[in-house]
Amino acid sequence: MSSSELTGQRILLIDGHAMAFRAFFALPADRFTDGRGQSTNAVYGFTRMMFNVVASEQPTHVVVAFDLPGGTFRDRIYEQYKGGRDATPEAFHGQIGLIQQVLDALGIVWLTVPDYEADDIIATLAARAAAQEGEALIVTSDRDAIQLVDERVTLLQPVKGVTEMRRMDPAAVMEKYQLAPARYPDLAALVGESADNLPGVPGVGPKTAAKWIQKYGDLEGVLEHAEEIAGKAGQSLRENIDGVRRNRLMNAAVTDLELPVDASAFTLGRGDRTAALAVFDELAFGDTTRRDLPDLFFPEGAAAPEPLAGQEVPADLPIAGAEDLRALLAAAPFELALDVADDVRGGALLGIATTGRRGVLALEQLDQDASSALAEVLDSAELVHVADVPAVRVWLRAQGYELTAPVRDLALEAFVLRPGARSYDAESLAHDLLGTVLDPRPRRPTPATLKKETAEARAEHLAVASARLADSAAALLPVAAHLDAAQEEEPWTRPLLEQLEVPLQRVLETLHERGIAIDRPTLDQLKDEFDGFVAQARREAGAIVGEEVNLASPKQLQAVLFETLALPKTRKIASGYSTDAESLIDLRDSLPPESSGHAFLSWLLRFREMSKLTGYVSGLDAATDGTGRVHTTFQQTAAATGRLASTEPNLQNIPVRTAEGRRLRGVFAAGDGYEALLTADYSQIEMRIMAHLSEDAGLIEAFRSGEDLHRFVASRVFSVAPEDVDAAMRSKTKAVSYGLAYGLSAFGLARQLRISQAEATALRDGYFERFGGVRDYLRASVDRARETGYTETILGRRRYLPDLRSDNRQRRENAERVALNSPIQGSAADIIKLAMLAVESRMREAGLGSRMLLQVHDELVVEVAPGELEQVREIVVDGMDGAYELSVPLEVGVGIGRTWLDAAH
Hints:
DNA binding; RNaseH_sf; exonuclease
């Protein structure tokens, strides 16, 4: 590195591991994933931190330093260095590699040096920048960096996650520690550093240490005068002088490393925007990440890609009335692309495009003539291309229009081709399939901002939003052409679309329109009862500790649990100790049942359970329409396995594991003019599919014999007669059976059954010994998927898994679990969809008044008209039983009652 390359420059130095860990603990891992099982919370938080610091500090150079596994020279000095740290959380694994991918795309150099820490790399570069009359900014939570602070080196120390930084210059260090930065290592040697497992002098805190250093000049002065220091603190110092000297040796910054990269590579502005956006999409980051990406990362003059980059931009055509609308649609063939948006300034906006032309309609501003012209278009177009037909149709209906022309759902087609994408809206389809980049979505203004906005500013913002919507509509036409070509190359998609997904889509729209009736008196009664249970839990928990406690506040709970009640600490997190459900259940079960801690935790868990049920009740109350019915929306593209999802409200997630939860199903009832609800579900469909796919003789025998499956399996695994299988044996083998079908590891099985991992492994191995066909099938599934690149369901639905060959262990193992469970879960989803088509078709052919209302994974709910019960039962059972022929029989259970709860079976 030449001596002039950092002269007069401003270099930003980031401690990669330190900031990644802070980001990990600041953001919940379960809310940030890439859609393939890899957690990305640390990556997201780190990336946002990078954006903020680069935008605010405007550096000229940036370097990120990382630690290497395997220890450093400091571990040879002191074997217990950094000992006692908790094991790295499983969800953190793999995220450092992903952060490094982000840095590569942004053109940011990241460095590691064998036998040294990231701190040493940072110290070397900071010292060189200062020596060359440059400026260094250090971003780290490691207090050892304080010693580097001087007039040219500033420490940005995170104080809240990775979003808020404390600026530590020499004056700030002096104010906080009463010492110059160069003397901080002396103070740290006396006080110790718990994070590094470096014990200090017992009874000596920062104030005492600073007083000694001020009096005697530095650490050596303190040690030379140790005999003069009176009291217990002085005696403690004399007894721990060797440890103090060791600490000072350990915390000394290394400033003379020979780094492997020329400093010219550290220059900010060497990134590749296209590569960066591709990485963000791979990580499933949202639109705000794209919008907030600072231009400083990229070469000067390298502006963001133009909308619709790489393809011909259709001509804009302002649409003000009927004449403009008809002009837009004058081209032949009469095919359209539509996209919709609700804008805070323009209201309901409809983006509309034909080949070579595009425009936007502000529906609230259309006069009668233009409105009639639009209605005519939506009825007479030869074909309309949209992303998410049901959503667009519902949106148009809310505006007073019906989309009755033939329609093509590009989102559904893209989903069948490549399930598991981040999104299937028009913008995502254009980007993922064509590489088209739209301008990032603008931030939603606050009401206060809108109130102050001038008419000119409002018009300008609306013009930007309209242009973006026109772009997304126009992009759908080339997307359609791309999907045509893709389906030609992968002909297995056509039968799935034409015979299953497209026909089912209309059925799902019909289910949405029908809704399901709500028993209002029962709903109101449950609300009162659940509110009472919540109040009781809050009251009883408060009585145990002698004060009112906000049970919804993690901060207050930590104080009560670990200070007032002095309970054993749970898993360490950034804000203290975990109060999540799993941690609290483990903690409660470890305590004596008669203890106050056990009682408090029981009431706390009761409070959470009942609060959740109260939330369900309130959600149903809000979602009930004027006719007393709730209309859920079934999503076909939400789950990569092909399973349907229910939203707004979610009726597939009504809790049934507790008595109170099951009572919620009593709220759903047969509506006026109907006599009952009929429920029908498949018995153990995943295990029947497992038997069919694995061809395991033992499982097939179990199903064909008609015995209880899990009792049969337990008798083989535990080598006892079926009649000697107890409840624990049956429960364990049931967990193994379903765990294998869902790709559950031995660790996950142990957690679920609350047994040791060794016992879980032995249980799984015993299962495989008795059911070798299952073992062989599961192994072959992964091997075959690794060879072909995809898994398949019984209907030929594919799921591509490129991560099966990934160098990232976390991603590879996640892909292997997906390869195990996708064929089974996906096949179950295919079969229930076939059953839905059969039941709906036969009931219509029979001219019945009864109607199907819901699908809940392997269950159908039907509203039965008077006098049609037996005919409906026969149609439903035959339709489900005959949906697909497996090598073992499909078994359908039926229940009937006035409510969904009464119809349980």
